[in-house]
Give the backbone structure.
Amino acid sequence: MIKKIPQRQCMGCRERKNKRDLLRVVRTVDGTVKLDFSGRLNGRGAYLCPNPECLKKARKTRALDRCLEVEIPAEVYERMEKEMEAKPHE
């Protein structure tokens, strides 16, 4: 029997990809927004390609704001961009 591979849509480029190939952005229970490299944090999640360009597109279209149902400050986007560049996705 073939195992089904979970698919998620990138909020930047809007392409459907394997869940393991994407980074998860989480709005935690206390309302903070951060990258979830483990994919296991509690909270509302959205997915992005591990590409800073997709983060820029999602920021421009405010896709993450809508998906996570919270206004994301510019400092959070800048921090996520630095984290994304510092820790490349496996």
Summary: The first helix runs from residue 52 to 61. The CA atoms of residues 34 and 88 lie 15 Å apart. Helices lie at 52-61, 63-68, 74-86.
